[in-house]
Design brief:
Helix content is 48%, strand content 19%.
């Protein structure tokens, strides 16, 4: 072999040695790239941290049914209940961040729990990424008919003149009904006694039976009782009036305090979920949320369809956590 042939032989050998590691690396990347491009290639699980039948379950299933059609895979709702919303939300936070587990999140588990528990097992701001927010619901403060007031200003005046005599129901300690009311009474500087129940049904039984005076509940649920004349609507909690009860003023309109809360619902994914999986989920969920048919379904159920970007959803979450943690602690509410 002459000098030229030897040099060509060495170059060819070096080129092959250089190509081999690259080829091996590419071979390892190929299945990963294929798997990501093929997402999702199996069913997706949506954790609902409340039992069937409530607002969490309703929204979670409405979104799941339509998302499944868009992504071409089953979207299976799993009701993981326990300790309010803690068990299901914690399970979602600790799930593999691969895009195959989502959480139905709301103000209750993503915002209020952050203030209610000093030793919370998850952090809404660090452990989750918003996929999309779909709908929000206001609360309506209702009173039994025997009460000598018809608006919030009159109620507060009565409470100041009769400290500790008025009672308000909730669906349980730390529920949205409890926290919203407690924050309102605290800001208004009145003493109204909390009577917690195990769920809204028991609270309504005592409210309609004149054994408790007041109850903040989701507007769609209060509507029937108000329209039938069994209860009187005092104020709604949204920043704007609710279309279901257009004649009922907001808390802010009362001039007593500036306070508003709407219970929004949507999907969240564990943090560190791959960007491409998040992008696919966000794109398909946005299409679902924008569907006129789904928006009408939410409106008929008393909700307000939402149209917010992912960055806006993230900002809303941060804002609400900061605001309500302060309000909860000012009202001295704690669950641990």
């Amino acid at each position: 072999m002459n000098h030229t042939e030897t040099r060509q032989h060495l170059l060819s050998r070096r080129q092959l040695l250089g190509i081999a590691p690259c080829a091996a690396f590419a071979a390892t990347l190929a299945p990963m790239a294929w798997a990501q491009a093929d997402f999702p290639n199996r069913p997706i699980r949506v954790i609902v941290p409340q039992p069937p039948g409530g607002g969490f379950d309703f929204v979670g299933r409405q979104l799941a049914e339509r998302l499944a059609k868009g992504i071409g895979q089953a979207v299976v709702v799993e009701n993981r209940t326990g300790s309010g919303t803690l068990v299901g939300t914690d399970a979602a936070a600790k799930a593999a961040p691969d895009g195959y587990t989502l959480l139905t999140g709301s103000v209750s588990n993503m915002v209020l729990n952050m203030g209610l528990y000093k030793q919370l097992s998850y952090d809404s701001l660090k452990d989750f990424e918003p996929v999309g927010l779909a709908v929000s619901y206001s609360y309506t403060l209702v009173a039994r008919n025997g009460m000598p007031f018809n608006n919030l200003a009159e109620l507060v005046a009565y409470a100041k003149a009769n400290p500790g005599k008025l009672t308000y129901a909730s669906a349980g300690n730390g529920s949205g009904q409890h926290v919203l009311a407690a924050a309102l009474w605290n800001q208004a500087g009145v003493d109204v006694v909390h009577v917690p129940y195990r769920g809204a049904q028991a609270a309504y039984a005592d409210l309609l039976g004149d054994r408790v005076d007041l109850f903040f509940d989701l507007t769609p649920t209060t509507r029937g009782h108000v329209e039938s004349g069994k209860l009187k609507a005092i104020a709604v909690s949204g920043a704007e009036r609710n279309a279901l009860q257009p004649n009922v003023p907001t808390i802010n309109e009362s001039g007593v305090v500036q306070l508003d809360l709407e219970s929004w619902f949507g999907y969240f994914a564990p943090s560190k979920t791959p960007a491409d999986a998040l992008e696919r989920l966000r794109t398909e969920l946005a299409k679902v949320i924008a569907t006129p048919e789904l928006q009408e379904t939410f409106r008929k159920a008393g909700g307000t369809p939402m149209k917010v970007s992912v960055s806006q959803a993230r900002t809303m979450l941060q804002r609400d956590v900061t605001r309500w943690t302060g309000l909860i602690r000012a009202a001295n509410i704690s669950l641990d």
